[in-house]
Amino acid sequence: MSSFIDIKPSQWVLAFDEPYGPYMRSMQEQLEMFRNRGGGWDSHSAAEIFHVYQVMDVKPKTYFIGESVTHPHAYLKARQPRTHVIAAGATKDEMIDLRDRFFSIGIETDDQIEAEMYRRIEKFAAKKRAAAVREIHRLLPRHFRSEP
Predict the structure, then answer these.
(1) Is the dihedral of CA 37, 40, 44, 49 positive or negative?
(2) Which of 65, 80, 96, 103 could connect to 46 by a Cys-Cys bridge, CB 3.0–4.6 Å?
(3) Three-state DSSP state, 23
(4) pLDDT tens-digit series, residues 47-89
(5) Does position 147 have pLDDT exceeding 80, yes or no?
(6) DSSP code of 93?
(7) Which is nearest to 36 in space by CA: 115, 121, 113?
């Protein structure tokens, strides 16, 4: 188990929203999940998975939040678990930038993988589709006969 991120009142933190936090995995394993698009939550936005909070008070295992940057429909509790804190910084903008940069890693990686995959398969796909068209024409010749 890793230690908590050192946080102080008035700092801003980047943290997992509770449902997405590290429960069955270590923080390191949870963060590495984001090598893929969405970290396993492909249809969720960065603002849903990660919240940015201003710290008001710090306790041994929890902290209290003031202002927050979250998904519009997020259910927020004033007391948050320190186990979900990813990073701390001086400003809200710094944490939002970190969130967006971190979240984009998996997106960019998967986009590059998919582009390369489609580039490599392009010739094969064209051949297979042409063969499929020939098979359709052979199977249903009445629809594809040329008129004299």
Answers:
(1) negative
(2) 103
(3) coil
(4) 999 999 999 999 999 999 999 988 877 888 999 999 999 999 9
(5) no
(6) H
(7) 113
